[in-house]
Amino acid sequence: MLDDLDRALIHALHLDGRAPFSRIAEVLGVSAQTVARRYRRLRTEAGLRVVGLADPDRAGRAQWLVRLTATARSAQDIAGALVRRPDTSWVKLTSGGTEITAVIHAPAEDASPGSLLLHDVPRTGGITAVSAHCLLHAYLGGPASWRRSAQALDERQQAALEYRESAEGVRQPGPEDAELLAALERDGRAGQGDLARATGWSPATVARRLAELRASGALFFDVEVDAGLFGVRTRALLWLSVRPAHLERVALALAGHDELAFVAATTGRTNLVAQALCRDPADLHRYLTRRLGALREIDALETSPVLRTLKAASPVLKAGYRVAPTRRGG
Q1: What is the pTM of this model?
Q2: How do strand 88-94 and strand 298-311 relate by DSSP bridges?
Q3: From 308's CA, which of 151, 169, 237, 323 has a CA 20 to 30 Å away?
Q4: Can you tell me whether residue 295 is helix, strand or coil?
């Protein structure tokens, strides 16, 4: 399990994923060498990873949550193929291992998922059903952290570390930013020298463009870490049907629940999706019956246990599966 310093470091990275170790160390009252050493250990042992992600709306991308039902024999191979695709994130095996969910990134101008995936998948052997749900609005997730992985610092420490830079009139991401964004997806803490080599820009240009993208909200930094180290042993995707007149109120209420790491409105037979992170099945049962049960506007609920997360928000850096850490999970 994590100790107090580990939790404080993870919380600090939620507040500013690119904060220098020296600044984090000053706030935490330890040496910069200690912070750097803990960061390296958490990367190795806890799957800690800071990744830079483009805001989908500002980047002109739509997100589709795809559910695939497959035969038991083919599910693992199909999931592995999805993990390797550059247009996917949050690939999960659910519901006994015969259902796969994944987020697909497609050009926003497409009226339907324009990703090649949705042309390929129906022809793939072993798939028995496919459904696609456009993510209309995220109420929890993205730059908002999962509360249980960000509860270590007091208000003074948070104020000292929180990223606040602002700017007006900056341009939105363009094709020229592709190499920069790709490098930050691989490592959100990559140094300016590494980013300069990846883009062919000067370090000064990298620093200026990075500041512009962050200030405009077009770029944010996510923290991935193994949720099991916070006591999470049971994960589930929740598919909810809510009367449209009450959708906003219910979604905002769910976004305030500590048990949830992700809440979004979707198209499809259900209109809200959430991910629950609980200590054990009994904890999930209490959440479903007491907290969700108190929201009378919820007409129907489907619970899909998550057996394994094969890919989180960031690209897979090595061949083969990895159990991806969970921060806000789609």
Answers
A1: 0.86
A2: antiparallel
A3: 151
A4: coil
